[in-house]
Amino acid sequence: MNPEALSLLLTRDMPYGKYKGTKLADLPGNYLGWLAREGFPRGELGALLALMYELDHNNLRSLLDPLRHPAGARG
């Protein structure tokens, strides 16, 4: 798994649709499931959405927590 891709999930916004402006890491599981059934878009966005779907589907969203709150960070 590419650590840079995990980081991108926290910084990239969904560029269109119902969840436009939502960070990819914050997209709801039902929407990710719908995208998986309908087909992910091509390119980097599709790859990131597929990765987020896998994390959600396998109950691994917590892998993003250390990136959200790096050790030693306050807030």
UniProtKB/TrEMBL annotation:
<protein>
    <submittedName>
        <fullName>DUF3820 family protein</fullName>
    </submittedName>
</protein>
<dbReference type="InterPro" id="IPR024530">
    <property type="entry name" value="QSregVF_b"/>
</dbReference>
<dbReference type="Pfam" id="PF12843">
    <property type="entry name" value="QSregVF_b"/>
</dbReference>
